[in-house]
Amino acid sequence: MKEDIEKIRCLIIGSGPAGYTAAIYASRADLKPVIYQGLQPGGQLTITTEVDNFPGYPDGIHGVAMMEDLKKQAERFGSDIRWGIVSKVDFSSRPFKIIIDETTTVYAETVIIATGASAKWLGLESEKKFNGFGVSACALCDGFFYKGQDIAIVGGGDTAAEEATYLAKLCKKVYMIVRRDELRASKAMQHKVLNTKNIEMLWNHTTKEIIGDKSVNGAIVKNVKTGIETKIDITGFFVAIGHKPSSEVFVGQIEMNENGYILTKPNSTQTNIEGVFAAGDVQDHLYRQAVTAAGSGCMAAIEAERFLSTI
Q1: Catalytic sites, residue numbers
Q2: Could you report the per-residue pLDDT of 167-223, keeping only the tens digit for each?
Q3: Is 152:232 a contact under the CB 8 Å cutoff?
Q4: CA dist list (Å): 228 to 64, 199, 204
Q5: 48-73 pLDDT, tens per residue?
Q6: Which of 62, 79, 97, 197 has its CA 20 to 30 A from that of 229?
Q7: How many contiguous H segments (helices) and E segments (strands) does the chain have?
Q8: Confidence of residue 3 (pLDDT cuts 50, 70, 90)
Q9: CATH 3.50.50.60 for the 121-239 domain, yes or no
């Protein structure tokens, strides 16, 4: 007996702010969207604590609760939200062939990729232990919580330099931990960092351990040239060594930049494949905020609706 083939008008891959917002708009447009939540339902916000900068929550909200709110809103309009990980795609012809969990095949007229990105971490056990309790990978998201306090940031590129100067405006002191004896950041960003009085450079240093009780209260740093270890007293520890877009499954199927971010047309979420759209952090290496991800999810759903109206 031949198995029935499921055909979907709008398939959304990923379930963070971009995916759920796309689902809300697609459902209201009667596209009957199906979402596969992926490995981490709710995305990166589910591993944060308080979210204070998303509009509509004047008292802030826990990341998990916020994602549950978005999920319920998408479900209220009829979104079909499913467990499952996309293991393979074929964008060579439409309807697009999508394989879920290496076993289930579905076909979609349009696809919205909202698989997000994840921060690169140092790999310390203490980093995991205090994640959300003093350890963060987003200065814009969490810097406010450390106003007037001493913190540390790890990294030597443009992102680290930019976040260090941002944190310096809020915090009493910023230790910048750099493995080499120079920054990799652009000359303009280097000049900005080195001329900010409350940023103390820890050249040729690595982080051996983050310490604390219920939350961070210090870190042990090691000079890679002398081997000398030093304890610094801090209440916040920021990691700024880069992000990795969750785009591996789409390699060879869609255009990306050298870092794996999916390329979209200017002022659009349209990729180089007609009918395939990308929203959120999987295509945004610049802002990486929940609110911008949600905005691009809205854009993707509207563009998918317009595309379907033309075929």
Answers
A1: 138, 141-142
A2: 999 999 999 999 999 999 989 999 999 999 999 999 999 999 999 999 999 999 999
A3: yes
A4: 40, 21, 11
A5: 667 888 999 999 898 889 999 999 99
A6: 197
A7: 7, 19
A8: low
A9: yes
Strand 199-202 versus strand 173-177 pairing type: parallel
Tell me, what amino acid is at 220? I
Residue type, 265: K
Domain ranges of the chain: 6-118+243-308, 121-239
Residues 12, 34 contacting (CB under 8 angstroms) = yes
Q: What is the DSSP string of 180-216?
A: SSS--S-HHHHHHHHT-TTEEEETTEEEEEEEESSSE
- Domain at 6-118+243-308: CATH code: 3.50.50.60
Can you read off the two tokens belonging to residue 45?
């916000």
89-147 confidence digits (pLDDT tens) = 999 999 999 999 999 999 999 999 999 998 889 999 999 999 989 999 989 889 999 99
Q: Do domains 6-118+243-308 and 121-239 have the same CATH topology?
A: yes
Q: Left if phi > 0, otherwise alpha if psi is -120 to 50, otherwise beta: which for 241?
A: alpha
